[in-house]
Amino acid sequence: MNKENMQKVIDAIKFDGQKKFNMSAFIGKLLQDNWEKYVFEGDELASKYPAGRVLRIDEGTDIFNCTSMGCIAGFATAIANEWKAPKWLSVDNHSEQMNGFEQTSNNFLGLTYQEGKNLYYGDDNCIWKWLMENEPERYDLSLEDYGSMDNANEEGIDWWESELTIDFASIDYLTAVDVLTRIMNEEIGLADINNAPYYINKEEVV
Hints:
Blueprint: H1 3-20, E1 27-30, H2 33-41, E2 51-53, E3 68-70, H3 72-80, H4 94-109, H5 113-120, H6 127-134, H7 149-154, H8 173-184, E4 188-189, E5 198-199
Antiparallel strand pairs: 1-2, 1-3, 4-5
Helix pairs in contact: 1-3, 1-8, 3-4, 4-5
């Protein structure tokens, strides 16, 4: 892990996350104009509303404009490129853009492919579901379709199953900052030999 770069991402999300952090798109725009008014003219959290991906951004222009927002990998990619759009963002190619965000962010933060996958996405062994399972009282996280982990468990679904997905709207910027700080401080890890998150130093958990 590159702790210096992780701290840069934490600082950027902490500084501008209320209006710019949204886990539902690498770089995205809110899906309704009135939501933009709530966020950019009011005090609503950007993460509260779903965002659709920005299809293309001209190379060399600002990767975030006044009403765009992004996830952890979006912030990391922006910082890695000095807040300017790389060439691969100038073409509307969804799979290429996904790979670009993942690879750029993983390289910048010093993460493996699996560690990045567990951080950026909301299915399989993601850190967000793992935290719901292991620390249900610490964060106000929820699942799509089921809400709580207890509800999912009652249906016979375990936290690591791919059909169980996190509700990205429940990950606000302060939650992201706290989780990233715990990862940077080596309290929790993103992927063990079974590709699941794990405690590195459980004594630090309060």
